[in-house]
Amino acid sequence: MPEKHEINEKVALHGAQQKQVYTSGVKPIWCPGCGDFGVQAGLIKAFNELGIDKSNVVIVSGIGCSSAMPHPFSTYGIHSLHGRLLPVASGLKLANHSLTVIGTGGDGDGYGIGSAHLLHSARRNIDVTYIIMNNETYGLTTGQTSPTALQGRKTKSTPFGVTEMPVNPMALAISAGATYVARGFSGDPMHLSQLIKGGLSHHGFSLIDIFSPCVTFNHDNTYDWFRSRVYKLEDVKHDPANMAMALEKAMEDITSNYSKLPIGLFYQTDRPTYEEYELSLKDGPLAKQKPHTREQIMEVLEENR
Question: Which residue from 1, 83, 74 is spatially nearest to 43, judged by alpha carbons?
């Protein structure tokens, strides 16, 4: 008769086969209280509810505190370059359409050095879900101003206050052509998980901007600051299929002088993805196409001499 511990191991193995474990056991590097923990929890919940096969998931990150997100997960992960995660994510998706490709980064990564990649990935409608943890500061380099910092905020790099207007991620993504645009708050991971779940289920480019407070270097935009300002779009009967309404809600940050910050699904529409348009992919993803023979390659070279 098998020992009790052997039976328990078999039961545990059977349970693991039924319900995947998406965590790797690697501890995150974030400060206690960091908003990124809420994002991690929301992502895990979304994975579990969708039952996504973790062997088909790739999480691509850039540089920054938030870009450590692939490490605690047992999926595939790539820690890429600052602001360059979307080209890597796009290449993965074009090479193998069956992959669930997720980009994770911060506001400096996505709205600063990586802003051009965001713009063109959105207009191409690459089937990638881009999660941006927006803390309005450069946390990894100890608190300099970021592209989403509000005017007047004093940081290490702006001791007399920020002079520029902050980037408006929602309006930028909608006008650029993203087909799923949402914003969440890491202080409400249950609500956030549903937005992430929607982005992962959506066929096309998804941007999910997340208010993710930096408890160490941003003492202005705190959890309490956000809680007193955020409200859910679903509570005001917002229609995410209406682009004009979505843009109006996206501009409410500015028109309310940042006293009202809507969260939820701003905009969603359906249109063909880049993978469906690209002629070189008409025979399927590159990873599953037969490689060209030497004769075919030489023929192309001869034609172009």
Answer: 74
Burial class of residue 141 in the structure, from the number of CB atoms within 10 Å of its CB (0-12 exposed, 13-18 middle, 19+ buried): middle
Question: What is the pTM assigned to this prediction?
Answer: 0.88
**Alpha-carbon distances of 290 from 95, 168, 261, 283, 295, rounded to whole Å:** 13, 44, 50, 10, 14
Residue 198 lies in a domain: yes
pLDDT at 19: 60
Distance, CA of 276 to CA of 52 (rounded, Å): 23
pLDDT of residue 7: 36
In the chain, how many domains are there? 1
Buried b (16+ CB within 10 A) or exposed e, 42-51: bbbbbbeeee
Nearest to 32 by CA among 190, 185, 215, 212: 215
* Banded model confidence at residue 83, pLDDT cuts 50, 70, 90: confident
Strand partners, 132: 105, 209
State the residue for tokens 């020992």: 3
Question: Is there a domain that residue 7 lies in?
Answer: no
Token pair in block for residue 113: 């050095």
CATH classification at residue 181:
3.40.50.970
Distance (Å, rounded) from C-alpha 289 to C-alpha 114?
31
Residue 215: pLDDT over 80: yes
Residue 99, SS3? coil
> 200 with 46: CB under 8 angstroms?
yes
CB-based contacts of 286, cutoff 8 Å, min separation 6: 94, 95, 96, 280
Strands (DSSP E) found in the chain: 57-61, 76-79, 100-106, 129-134, 137-138, 144-145, 180-185, 206-211, 230-232, 261-268
Residue 17 lies in a domain: no
Does residue 191 register a pLDDT over 70?
A: yes
Work out the mean pLDDT of the chain and round it to a whole number: 89
